[in-house]
């Protein structure tokens, strides 16, 4: 049975910001459908949609009020089905986002819990207590909110995102139905939000250090998870090859402070894929990157679980700004966009040459910088609100995509405004402008996706950061100040920047045909 996801390139769509089809300034399925040819030409194997379910959008849709429908702002279930069928026509599979750790406070089950008595079965679907412990929300502030009758409920994220009680068998039973609802509709896979969450230590103990982190804790990486995901794997594997060749898949959003925190998930019959976030958490330093790659490959060695590589998503600063900023960046003035762009292009050649699957977040292929100067009044991320502005949050990487023209809204919408503002000066970054430019970042991504190497990985001796894939392909990066002579090769396949005299300048990567 083909495991199509093992070396797939998956494109992440953040639906609010990908493409607007109805002129209201928010992206939707109609807009995405119109842009399918773009995705087909980019050459991706699948798209993952961040949540599009009915939601108050208090956390961009990761606050789900109904797991089995489409929010009218994004379209209808029929529009979703149309997209899946049309994508299949282009050979593109669809992955949907499942949010099992928490729902929206607008979810009928939580509304029923609020209306019910303390100690009732309705409340037992969530985590209500008479007194809070000292846990903190990952978005800032306490992880507990008090209800009018005096009880408190747990929310690891925003107060509008109550955590489900996974120790109550009704919760896994409900999610099994949600999984089947989408799998029956023909989706090829699921992305599982906060996959290291869900189960909590039943004692809900106070912790010595309540600072949120992704290490194993009474709320993250609980031992129940491994057996739980085996049940989801069995559901995935029970689906026939009716839509596409190959099994259905799921990719877990497992964060860890260290690579070893993910080890338990790399077992036979587990969740088919676990994101590898360590590449973008690693500094722009050859030795550090080499160490991360070696440790990541060791994690997947001999396991049938795949760990897709990632350099950006809707939760982290755009690579161009991250690699061009003295961290943490707080204003455009501090970001060297030219330097960041140079490094992000080299990182793209690394990402797409490594063995296994890679996820590309919308706009990464355009080399968009983070929009850091969004006015306070326009910011939407609860992280910004809950931290009283101390953390800028993630709006800057969620700006509507510039498709064409030289000014806002850059072809994103037929309307005049967009749900988050776009900066001026993005005219040269639009899809239209970059398609016409053979040296654009979009062209680089298209060429790299089309030409991904398949052979066995081996480090290339004599270089800080270089490796071969089989006998005839090499990827070489130079992150150091000194130019590096290229190894003997038959031809230069791709370069992240201009190369002269077979010498690789600083912050540049090349793909070489060796023979
Ligand atoms: O993100 C998860 C998340 O943000 C944390 O679990 C993570 O541990 C931390 O930020 C990294 O150190 C997911 C979604 O991707 C995000 O957009 C949502 O806001 C969040 O869950 C809540 O649903």
Describe this structure in words.
The chain has 515 residues and is α/β, with parallel strands linked by helices. It has helices at 29-34, 36-42, 77-89, 108-115, 170-184, 224-237, 278-281, 286-300, 319-323, 337-353, 382-386, 431-435, 441-450, and strands at 9-13, 46-49, 93-98, 128-129, 144-146, 152-154, 189-192, 249-252, 273-274, 309-310, 358-361, 457-459, 465-469, 473-478, 484-485, 491-495, 503-504, 508-513. The strands form 4 sheets. Strands 9-8-7-3-2-1-11-10 form an 8-stranded parallel β-sheet. The chain has a 5-stranded antiparallel β-sheet with strand order 12-13-14-18-16. It has a 3-stranded antiparallel β-sheet with strand order 4-6-5, with no helix packed on it. Helix 10 packs parallel to helix 13. 1-O-alpha-D-glucopyranosyl-D-fructose is lined by residues 59, 62, 99, 138, 157, 193-194, 214, 253, 255, 314-315.
Topology of helices and strands:
Blueprint: E1 9-13, H1 29-34, H2 36-42, E2 46-49, H3 77-89, E3 93-98, H4 108-115, E4 128-129, E5 144-146, E6 152-154, H5 170-184, E7 189-192, H6 224-237, E8 249-252, E9 273-274, H7 278-281, H8 286-300, E10 309-310, H9 319-323, H10 337-353, E11 358-361, H11 382-386, H12 431-435, H13 441-450, E12 457-459, E13 465-469, E14 473-478, E15 484-485, E16 491-495, E17 503-504, E18 508-513
Parallel strand pairs: 1-2, 1-11, 2-3, 3-7, 7-8, 8-9, 10-11
Antiparallel strand pairs: 4-6, 5-6, 12-13, 13-14, 14-18, 15-17, 16-18
Helix pairs in contact: 10-13
The structure holds 1-O-alpha-D-glucopyranosyl-D-fructose.
The site of 1-O-alpha-D-glucopyranosyl-D-fructose has 12 residues, from loops.
